[in-house]
């Protein structure tokens, strides 16, 4: 089943839930999910003071495209601050994070898997 069809609606109507693995202050609002491929569109929210260091740097087996639309965070590995208006495209296996967000942040994120030939 592909992601469901959905006409415009307010993102405020989508509930934020804890991420897995759980990090205090980090939550997600799943806007769409394809259960057959686990492709996801979500908003990731960092509350002020969120520190993802307990999870360490991340890698995963899917493509990830992210756009920061509110706030900022510091990438602890790269020692760089990323802020609203910044974006990234991460192929499977690319290391990223951990982050600390002093004042909070929100990101729009799309995750998907590339079909094998």
Automatic annotation (TrEMBL):
Source organism per UniProt: Glutamicibacter uratoxydans (Arthrobacter uratoxydans)
InterPro entries listed in its UniProt record: ChrR-like_cupin_dom, RmlC-like_jellyroll, RmlC_Cupin_sf
Domain ChrR-like cupin: from-to ranges: 11-108
Protein name according to UniProt: ChrR-like cupin domain-containing protein
């Amino acid at each position: 089943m592909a992601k469901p069809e959905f006409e415009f609606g307010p993102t405020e109507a989508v509930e934020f839930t804890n991420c897995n693995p759980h990090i205090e202050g980090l939550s997600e609002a799943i806007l769409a999910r394809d259960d057959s491929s686990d492709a996801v569109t979500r908003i990731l929210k960092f509350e002020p003071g969120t520190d993802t260091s307990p999870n360490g740097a991340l890698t995963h087996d899917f493509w990830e495209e992210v756009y920061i639309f509110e706030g900022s965070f510091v990438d602890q590995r790269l020692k760089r601050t990323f802020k609203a208006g910044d974006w990234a495209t991460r192929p499977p296996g690319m290391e990223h994070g951990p982050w600390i967000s002093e004042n909070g942040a929100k990101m729009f994120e799309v995750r998907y898997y590339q079909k094998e030939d």
